[in-house]
Automatic annotation (TrEMBL):
One of its GO terms (cellular component) is DNA polymerase III complex. This is DNA-directed DNA polymerase. It catalyses: DNA(n) + a 2'-deoxyribonucleoside 5'-triphosphate = DNA(n+1) + diphosphate. The keyword Zinc applies. Keywords: ATP-binding, Coiled coil, DNA replication, DNA-directed DNA polymerase, Metal-binding, Nucleotide-binding, Nucleotidyltransferase, Transferase, Zinc. One of its GO terms (molecular function) is metal ion binding. Residues 378-405 form a coiled coil. Belongs to the DnaX/STICHEL family. Pfam families: DNA_pol3_delta2 (PF13177), DNA_pol3_gamma3 (PF12169), DNAX_ATPase_lid (PF22608). Residues 529-552 are annotated as: Disordered. The lineage of its organism: Bacteria, Bacillati, Bacillota, Bacilli, Lactobacillales. It comes from Enterococcus quebecensis.
């Protein structure tokens, strides 16, 4: 015997079998018992919530001679014929495929004739919102002058697409999404009937994935059964629905909450390499965060809804401030927007992971007073160096010797702590000696380099790109300011790039971090500066590589610089100034 899908075999045949729509089925039964049926019904609601099943049960109940309490007997010739879809007086139409005016006219003509076998002729029009305007008008005419003993049942998932003139002539029933618990109970009942063993938690995973639709739930259950060996396990259900265990989510989220970037990224990598799709994972993460919030407010309600909450989850919900969860939800939904049109969803997810772990960490260690002092000092120092370097550039440009220059001002520069400081002079230094070949060398080994890095380092570099390179320096542009700032401060990362590159390309450039956003401007200002000193070389429209190549030039401005370099050494000491000769 050919295999029949569960949702067909287990389609409800009595009103009492329709899951999760008690109010509606009771009202319909009462109408039949009291013989107060309407000539037109509108069943609305999400897919798989029982609309067409209820319509067919209604067609049987109203025509069954042995109906008891408004339920069909399901045994008489009429009931069986309707169940098997071969009673001429019960006509099912799928408007998605029969949307022409002709078909509805046909209905109108035929509806005039009295039923032949049954007492009532019942038209069930599924997806009725798909009818054309002309067809709706034809239908309206029929509904305005309803023929004797004819009942229309219109079913739709999109009631807002149905003309009000039609709606006002029907009795409307809104089918609700079926609760996860109801779906789980029903699946459990079916599995027991067909003697298939199962783990209770597997059913909750399927129930959640079905989002309130019994037909979807039974389809997923079908797939899971064919996937399983004898027993429907939680693991099988996860595989089929692509959902994650709460345990895995627990691990990921708690790493983020404790600010353990490394652990969070490692968990993420495991999750993604197990075949999880990035978009789906983001949805699961959002759901998880929402569950955390819900659990804090109404633990019982959530327990009923989800069914299988882990101890870790409860612990996390107890420990994490609602503020933090809101923050995480914000980062996650921003990321959801970012990945909508990209092929690199995994990279965004990795960046989001760094953000999640970092943002939480920042707010968690706010009381550590030592660090801000240190970094303030560094900022001041950095600003002083920058200031000196600026003057150096001026000197270089104007050809004035250092001795004539004014003493360096040490006045404090008010800092903008939020803005990332781009090391302009360091970038210029690299550009001065950059060549296309050096850049190509680095680009050729970039993937290998990433493989040599730790998980955290790799994630940071994945959202970056080398844009200029010379024998001693390498400019890397990052997609995100936050990652760029982190890379700048990360000595280990810089050292790792330096060392690993030395193994791959036989020289060891230092890494200069900038944002992608700042790159065009940096390049442009370098070009115009170069134009001032050496005239005819540049063309604004040339590509980055060509610029670097051209500017880095066959004839670097070493001679011009020598005097300046001497002065610089005098000013900074020779440890700070590296003199570069090709
Ligand atoms: Zn019957």
């Amino acid at each position: 015997m050919a295999y029949q899908a569960l949702y067909r075999v287990w389609r409800s045949q009595r009103f009492d079998d329709v899951v999760g729509q008690k109010a509606i089925t009771q009202t319909l039964k009462n109408a039949i018992i009291q013989k107060k049926t309407s000539h037109a019904y509108l069943f609305t609601g999400p897919r798989g919530t029982g609309k067409t099943s209820a319509a067919k049960i209604f067609a049987k109940a109203i025509n069954c001679k042995h109906s008891v309490d408004g339920e069909p007997c399901n045994e008489c010739e009429t009931c069986v014929a309707i169940t098997e879809g071969r009673l001429n007086d019960v006509i099912e139409i799928d408007a998605a495929s029969n949307n022409g005016v002709e078909e509805i006219r046909d209905i109108r003509d035929k509806a005039k004739y009295a039923p032949t076998q049954a007492e009532y002729k019942v038209y069930i029009i599924d997806e009725v919102h798909m009818l054309s305007t002309g067809a709706f008008n034809a239908l309206l005419k029929t509904l305005e002058e309803p023929p004797q003993n004819v009942i229309f049942i219109l079913a739709t998932t999109e009631p807002h697409k149905i003309p009000l003139t039609i709606i006002s002539r029907t009795q409307r029933f809104d089918f609700k999404r079926i609760s996860t618990q109801d779906i789980v109970d029903h699946m459990g009942y079916i599995l027991k009937e067909i003697n298939v063993d199962f783990e209770e938690q597997a059913l909750y995973v399927i129930g959640r994935a079905a989002e309130g639709g019994m037909r979807d739930a039974l389809s997923i259950l079908d797939q899971t059964i064919s996937f399983s060996d004898e027993k429907v396990t939680l693991q099988d259900a996860m595989q089929v629905t692509g959902s994650l265990t709460y345990e895995m989510m627990d691990q990921y989220i708690s790493s983020c909450v404790t600010g353990d970037v490394e652990q969070a990224l490692e968990t993420l990598e495991n999750i993604l390499s197990s075949g999880k799709e990035a978009r789906r994972f983001l949805e699961d993460l959002l759901l998880y965060c929402r569950d955390l919030l819900m659990f804090q407010q109404a633990p019982k309600l959530l327990a009923e809804k989800v069914g299988n909450l882990t101890d870790n989850f409860k612990e996390l919900a107890g420990q994490t401030a609602a503020e933090k969860i809101y923050q995480m939800i914000q980062i996650l939904s921003d990321t959801q927007n970012d990945i909508r049109f990209t092929n690199n969803a995994n990279i965004y997810l990795e960046v989001a992971t760094v953000k999640l772990a970092k943002s939480v960490k920042k707010s968690a260690v706010i009381s550590e007073a030592v660090q801000p002092v240190e970094s303030a000092e560094i900022t001041t120092l950095q600003q002083q160096i920058e200031h000196l370097q600026k003057e150096l550039t001026e000197l270089k440009k104007n050809g004035v010797t250092a001795k004539e220059a004014e003493p360096v001002k040490t006045t404090r520069v008010t800092s903008n702590k939020n803005a990332l400081r781009i090391p302009t002079e360091l970038v210029y230094k690299v550009l001065n000696e950059a060549t296309k070949d050096h850049l190509l060398n680095v680009k050729n080994v970039w993937d290998d380099l990433l493989q040599m890095m730790s998980v955290t380092q790799r994630a940071m570099l994945k959202a970056s790109e080398p844009v200029a390179a010379g024998p001693n320096g390498l400019v890397i542009a990052f997609d995100y300011e936050i990652v760029c700032g982190r890379a700048m401060d990360d000595d280990e990362l810089q050292l790792a790039v330096h060392n690993n590159l030395s193994r791959l390309v036989n020289y060891a450039p230092d890494m200069i971090c900038i944002t992608k956003e700042s790159w065009p401007k940096l390049r442009q200002s370098f070009i115009s500066q170069n134009k001032d000193t050496s005239g005819d070389q540049t063309n604004d429209d040339q590509s980055v590589e060509e610029n670097s190549h051209l500017l880095a030039g066959e004839e670097p401005a070493v001679e011009v610089n020598n005097l300046v370099v001497d002065e610089a050494i005098a000013m900074f000491g020779d440890e700070l100034v590296e003199v570069i000769n090709d």
